[in-house]
Amino acid sequence: MAPSLLRALAPKNVVVAGILLMLAGDFMFALNDAMGKWLVTNFSVGLVVAVRSIGAFIILGPMIARQGAEKLVRVERPGIQLLRAIMTTVDTGLFYAAVVHLPLADVMSFYMAGPIYVAALSHFMLGERIGWRRWAAILVGFCGVLVILNPSTAAFSLSAIFAFIGSVAFALSIVYSRQLRGTPDTTLVTWQTIAALVAGLVFAVGDWRAPGVFDIGAMLLLGVVSCAAHLMITRALKLAPASTLAPLHYSLLLWAAVFGMVFFGDVPGPRVLVGAAIVVLAGLFIFHRQKVVDTVPPENVPKGVN
Known about the structure:
Layout: H1 3-40, H2 45-67, H3 70-73, H4 78-99, H5 104-111, H6 114-125, H7 132-149, H8 158-178, H9 185-205, H10 213-239, H11 242-245, H12 251-264, H13 270-295
Helix pairs in contact: 1-10, 1-12, 2-9, 2-10, 4-8, 4-9, 5-8, 5-12, 5-13, 6-7, 6-8, 7-13
Pfam families: EamA
InterPro entries: EamA_dom, EmrE-like
Domain EamA: 17-149, 159-286
């Protein structure tokens, strides 16, 4: 093959690799969620989160050794680092607390609203300008969340509240991550894992049930799967444009529905499907508008159209 043709195909191959890694990472995250739901039906959320965090160090350990421990201590904006670690811990803990009683697809539908919350929070926390189109999409997306939440006396549940608060914490962790762009991924993931480990141990003490060898192995594997998924998605974002990869993230919802039906016999109800569709469409529109704004020079963007 001619060198000129190879050079022309190389960028496309890199983007395809990024897409494949994104899809694989989302599949791994969905698998992590299904494994977590199975484990928290028999053990406390605190214990599962704690042992899961230890398992993550099977992958993180060599990465920390290669990076150097000093970079874990010398971090930018320690206060934001702490807030991010707290939010990721709340996100993880409440997700597992929610799936104890709710189907995977229901909980994942709440978390699919994360990009919508990020768009709104970025306006207030990062000073990003949000035009009326995206504000309208944010409001529509939040209406989709209300459809899923179903805040009626008969159906409103503590698990649904956990899922909603967890999804907001997830969005906040993304916003804080944007403020910490100069921090290596290994450092960010290490501190959030340590925070989850500490919180998990604290909550596990009050609801302790000794796991067997097989159960401990499953919890450790949960940490490996979760950490691998995170690294896949991080690498994907470095190989392909975020605007290309972002819509693929909604494949998580599909896998959550599949795993929920296959392993737990959970079938999403019409209300959840309608609410999830509203959330996904609103999120895709926000991604589209962000891409439009990012590809047009700022001086050519009329005020308020973003």
